[in-house]
């Protein structure tokens, strides 16, 4: 069974346990390695997005940044803290980030400049937003709601299709080590009207082209009672020989390695032969 996770969170983003607590738990589980991948969400208008207040109320608004220079300072400090803390534990700890990919003019250049400045071992892309055509306005993909009228459904479909196109662009950018939760947007109750299988298969195609791995996330089991991704997409990934890594997307120590036995069984059943491992 896979004895590590590269998709985990601490109190540096919206995780509920500290870096020390997560590392100690990984050691307790007998793991030899772990990757910590706190959220990296930088968008100039994120604080104007309609659901931002929910995150303020939950006390996790610090993960939503609108200034690259300020973010850079915080990330440099975080890396120093991470290296110092990780050195205390008998485990190989990788420093990663889970990055939301945005498309407004200038974002990618600023992001590339930031990445050059900050100490890190790997980057995941995990996308949690819908956005306007120019990428300037963003809407949380889980909370976004529309009336189930013909107009409301059409507007939702447009946003959802654009969301999958954005993920494909993130993959194409070549900046990321692996892709998190392809079909996270299934958390939105309106997704059921639009399966978007072809759009998701296009992302698989891009992964294949870029030779980029994809996660099988057990977080879906806790959220929508199914893995991210769904079985048809996981089958497609496997048939294209895209490397797979199991993730727990742990936000608590108790979630580390959660349901990895079920994920292993799913991969075995579908004949997955290609597994991803950092270095
Ligand atoms: Zn995520
Ligand atoms: Zn995550």
Describe the structure.
The chain is of the alpha/beta class. It has a single domain (19-269), classed as TIM Barrel. The chain contains 9 helices and 9 strands. The protein has helices at residues 19-28, 52-57, 68-86, 107-117, 150-172, 197-210, 219-223, 231-239, 260-269; strands at 33-42, 64-65, 92-99, 122-125, 129-131, 138-140, 178-179, 214-217, 244-247. Strands 2-1-3-4-7 form a 5-stranded parallel β-sheet. A two-stranded antiparallel sheet has the order 5-6. Helix 3 packs parallel to helix 4, helix 5 (150-172) packs parallel to helix 6 and helix 6 runs parallel beside helix 8. The longest helix has 23 residues, at 150-172. The radius of gyration is 18 Å and the shape is globular. The model has no long low-confidence stretch (mean pLDDT 96). The site of one zinc ion (ZN) has 5 residues, from loops.
Which SSEs are present, and which pair or pack?
Blueprint: H1 19-28, E1 33-42, H2 52-57, E2 64-65, H3 68-86, E3 92-99, H4 107-117, E4 122-125, E5 129-131, E6 138-140, H5 150-172, E7 178-179, H6 197-210, E8 214-217, H7 219-223, H8 231-239, E9 244-247, H9 260-269
Parallel strand pairs: 1-2, 1-3, 3-4, 4-7, 8-9
Antiparallel strand pairs: 5-6
Helix pairs in contact: 3-4, 5-6, 6-8
The structure holds zinc ion (ZN) (2 copies).
Bound ligand species: zinc ion
Mean pLDDT: 96
Helix content: 25-40%
CATH fold-type name:
TIM Barrel
**What shape does the CA trace take?**
globular
Q: Uncertain spans, ≥5 residues at pLDDT below 50? A: none
Broad structural category? alpha/beta
Number of structural units classed as domains:
1
Q: Per DSSP, what share of the residues sits in E-state strands of 2 or more residues?
A: 5-15%
CATH superfamily: Metal-dependent hydrolases
Spatial separation of the terminal alpha carbons: 18 Å
Provide the CATH architecture. Answer: Alpha-Beta Barrel
Give the C-level CATH assignment. Answer: Alpha Beta
Quaternary structure of the protein:
single chain
* Major sheet size, sense and barrel closure: 5 strands, parallel
Q: Provide the spatial order of strands within the biggest beta sheet.
A: 2-1-3-4-7
Total number of helical segments? 9
């Amino acid at each position: 069974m896979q004895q590590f996770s590269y998709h985990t969170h601490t109190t540096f983003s919206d995780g509920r346990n500290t870096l020390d607590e997560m590392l100690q738990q990984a050691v307790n589980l007998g793991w030899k390695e772990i990757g910590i991948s706190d959220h990296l969400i930088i968008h100039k208008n994120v604080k104007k997005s309609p659901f931002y207040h929910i995150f303020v109320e939950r006390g996790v608004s610090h993960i939503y940044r609108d200034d690259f220079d300020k973010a850079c300072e915080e990330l440099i400090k975080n890396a120093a803290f991470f290296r110092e803390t990780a050195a205390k534990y008998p485990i190989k700890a990788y420093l990663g980030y889970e990055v939301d990919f945005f498309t407004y003019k200038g974002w990618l250049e600023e992001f590339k400049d930031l990445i050059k400045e900050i100490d890190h071992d790997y980057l995941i892309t995990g996308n949690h937003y819908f956005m306007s055509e120019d990428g300037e306005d963003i809407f949380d993909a889980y909370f976004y709601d529309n009336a189930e009228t013909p107009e409301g459904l059409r507007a939702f479909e447009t946003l959802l299709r654009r969301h999958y196109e954005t993920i494909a662009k993130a993959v194409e950018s070549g900046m990321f080590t692996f892709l998190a939760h392809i079909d996270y947007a299934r958390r939105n109750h309106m997704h059921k009207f639009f399966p978007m299988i072809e759009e998701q298969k296009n992302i698989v195609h891009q992964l294949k082209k870029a030779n980029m791995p994809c996660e099988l996330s057990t977080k879906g089991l806790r959220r929508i009672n199914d893995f991210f991704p769904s079985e048809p997409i996981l089958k497609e990934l496997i048939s294209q020989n895209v490397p797979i890594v199991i993730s727990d997307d742990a936000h608590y120590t108790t979630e580390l390695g959660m349901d990895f036995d079920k994920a292993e069984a799913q991969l075995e059943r579908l004949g997955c032969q290609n597994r991803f491992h950092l270095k």
